[in-house]
Amino acid sequence: GAGVSQSPSNKVTEKGKDVELRCDPISGHTALYWYRQSLGQGLEFLIYFQGNSAPDKSGLPSDRFSAERTGGSVSTLTIQRTQQEDSAVYLCASSLGGGKETQYFGPGTRLLVL
Amino acid sequence: QKEVEQDPGPLSVPEGAIVSLNCTYSNSAFQYFMWYRQYSRKGPELLMYTYSSGNKEDGRFTAQVDKSSKYISLFIRDSQPSDSATYLCAMRTNAGKSTFGDGTTLTVKP
Q1: If both were cysteines, with which of A75, A76, B13, B35 could B48 make a disulfide (CB 3.0 to 4.6 Å apart)?
Q2: Residues B16-31: tens digit of each pLDDT
């Protein structure tokens, strides 16, 4: 079956603009995660959804970052007033949930803020 | 101090060598241990998943967990150029999110 998909695959934007990143999880996966990966760095946890609710938003770096998930499926990560330090690869992962937390990752969105 | 520390590398080995990748952790509540492989410009893919202390083997890959020492390893036997990638360890508690190491970049030279 289809894996996790993300769009766009690449995004170049100007400092100060807003961007929206989309994640389509594997069908039937109730848990969804957003991570950020900077060049040569590990994965930085951003936010976790179980269904449509976000019990853990602890990783969002500032109030410019927000995420939502509708219908227990697609999720959108929004970054407002982008800064150059927001440049990174944004990865989405999904899992079955209910304690079965093996995560399956999408290919990521490479964001470059000029 | 980070909860998960991973040997930074980079690591370069000749084809056929045995590779050892290692992580240590400080949170004794971690119960599940994973290794992910990430090729350049791709998302991480799950390679190995273990729960208990001991060894788990899958083909050329062996994952080892020592909970008493808070130490996990991934061994790759007969390494191939196609194994060249970044390897990430990850671990989680019963209830929490996964915590990842920073990754070790491996290059296997033909």
Answers
A1: B35
A2: 999 999 999 999 989 8
